[in-house]
Amino acid sequence: MKNAARRDKLYSIMRGAGLDVIALIPGPNHRYLTGAEHYVLERPIVSFYSLDQEPVAVIPELEISLFQRHAEPPRIISYSDAEGCQSAFRAALNAIGSRGKTIGVDGLHMRFFEGEIIRQAAPDATVVDASAPLAELRLIKDEVEIACLRRAIEISEAALQATLAEITVGMTGIEAAAILEGQIRELGGEGLSFGTILHAGGNSALPHSGPLAYRIQSGDPLIVDFGARYGGYCADITRTVFVGAASDEQREFYSVVQAANEAGRLAAKPGVTAESVDIAARQVIIDAGYGDLLRHRTGHGIGLQAHEAPYIVEGNTRVLAPGMVCTIEPGIYRIGEIGVRIEDNILITEDGSESLTSFPRALLVI
């Protein structure tokens, strides 16, 4: 029943967007609709959802047994390595009557490779990017999804607590990240939401980068941005701590971000726009005189992806609604010296919001 309801939601979105067919490759939208997770390799897998025909999937022969563990789509057209996939795609598109229809593809995930195969197999159809309407599909989380997010966050916070107790002066960022990732797996995480970001010293001003061989020193800021996955759902948490001691300047720097994080969390509630939350957090930083050190938006949605709608950014007039889950992660960065980011995961409720993250936000010296 869950998958049927989600499929009905997809069909409603398609009607509203004027789409006759949606084509999905393995990824978050496909998993949301079917519960199935598959690799994206050189052998294409595409499922077609039509408003007037039963869904049909094109898959390589070696994937049939895995695919059939899930009830949807009921029709499978397979192909062997020897014959290739072109005839299977033609058969699938003929089966759904693609002539003259508009086929929407998930442009954020589908490769040029699959898009061209679809165009060649259905020359009389119009193929368009359906990324915007598909963003509506997973926007509101149900109780099962929220439970998975809660568990992913619990695992992440326990892993961070254990890791901070093991970090020592002289350890590299790579070594510290390995401890964190090992803790996630030991605590029941399925894996990582994304590649761990863990930087110390002046490298903390790099908002996005993998762990480095830099050796942690006393007095360093240490920024940790990471998350565990559970049930396919992603946590995304950032905390900035200080090693050994924190100077007065570092404490001031931190306090500004802490206040911006609080302002963003308080602003997040149903009926307000995403951009108003972004503005609330950013204004604290601007008023404190650090506006020139802003580098990124205040947040983004999380779910089956670590980054998804709604995006908490100026210019996004989407109104927040109960069931949306997003991050509040203001940060400021002085290149080569210090970066501070504090990130929480927020559930929009009927009358406000709930922070799903509970790890302390007060300045911490380890």
What does this structure look like?
It is a single chain. The chain folds into 2 domains: 2-134, 3-Layer(aba) Sandwich (Creatine Amidinohydrolase, Chain A, domain 1), CATH 3.40.350; 143-355, Creatinase/methionine aminopeptidase superfamily (Creatine Amidinohydrolase), CATH 3.90.230.10. The protein is 33% helix and 21% strand. It has helices spanning 2-17, 28-34, 64-67, 86-95, 112-121, 131-134, 143-164, 173-186, 248-267, 274-287, and strands spanning 21-24, 46-50, 56-60, 75-79, 102-105, 126-129, 191-192, 197-200, 221-226, 228-230, 233-234, 237-242, 299-301, 308-312, 325-328, 331-334, 338-341, 344-348, 353-355. The strands form 6 sheets. The chain has a 6-stranded mixed beta sheet with strand order 4-3-2-1-5-6, with helices on one face. A 3-stranded antiparallel beta sheet has the order 7-10-11. It has a 3-stranded antiparallel beta sheet with strand order 8-9-12, covered by helices on one side. β10 (228-230) and β11 form a beta hairpin. It is elongated and about 70 Å long.
Could you outline the blueprint of secondary structure elements for this entry?
Elements: H1 2-17, E1 21-24, H2 28-34, E2 46-50, E3 56-60, H3 64-67, E4 75-79, H4 86-95, E5 102-105, H5 112-121, E6 126-129, H6 131-134, H7 143-164, H8 173-186, E7 191-192, E8 197-200, E9 221-226, E10 228-230, E11 233-234, E12 237-242, H9 248-267, H10 274-287, E13 299-301, E14 308-312, E15 325-328, E16 331-334, E17 338-341, E18 344-348, E19 353-355
Parallel strand pairs: 1-5, 3-4, 5-6
Antiparallel strand pairs: 1-2, 2-3, 7-10, 8-9, 9-12, 10-11, 13-14, 15-18, 16-17, 18-19
Helix pairs in contact: 4-5, 7-8, 9-10
